[in-house]
Amino acid sequence: MEFIDINTLKENDIVKFINPNKTLVDGRIRKVSKECVGITINTRQDAYREFSQNQCIELILVRKHEALRCTSVILGSKQTGFEQAVIISLPKLVLGIDRREFERISIVMKIEYSPLPCEVEYESLSKVEQRYFRSFRKTYTIDISAGGVNFILSRDEEVSNFVLVALSVKDENILVLCKKIRVETMEDPRHKKVAYKYNDIKKQHRQLILDFVSEKSKELNNKERAI
User: The whole model's pTM is what?
Assistant: First the structure.
């Protein structure tokens, strides 16, 4: 495993601590040095569990183009009021991570998509011609995560390597450039499902989806326990 470049860690950035039960706890970066990172955690979060010195942890660093799953160690801890301050070792990137390892929920959501030419490799939204921002088609999701989305297409429709996806989360309109991962058949012979990963997405929008998935997952778990 390799260490995260400290130049990519910024004060006030949000990080996600991963609990053993896969729930997420928000932390905010307060200080970055060559050997460690200082983070504060609001202890009033539902998923909060106290962190202790020498504890090995997993966390997610949210970037504009990606979400990085990392490991670290708690080097020091102090709790004051409704806040726990921790010092962690420089995070190490978990190599070879599959985006499907990030928490994913099965959910039907209305979205729109705009197929892009198959012969072009798109690296960013800024490289997409304006006409494709005016030719969206309607469909719905099968599942969604902080790394990508799986949605329905007609069986006979050509599957583009890149698409624009427009969706709404918590009343926020999100526009993403996506790249195809795989195509799968369905029991309904009239349709197929296509998995896309986010290739260009605003940092705050990835964070919003991450929070949305976490909240919906908690709701589902609470309902299951209540049955």
Answer: 0.66
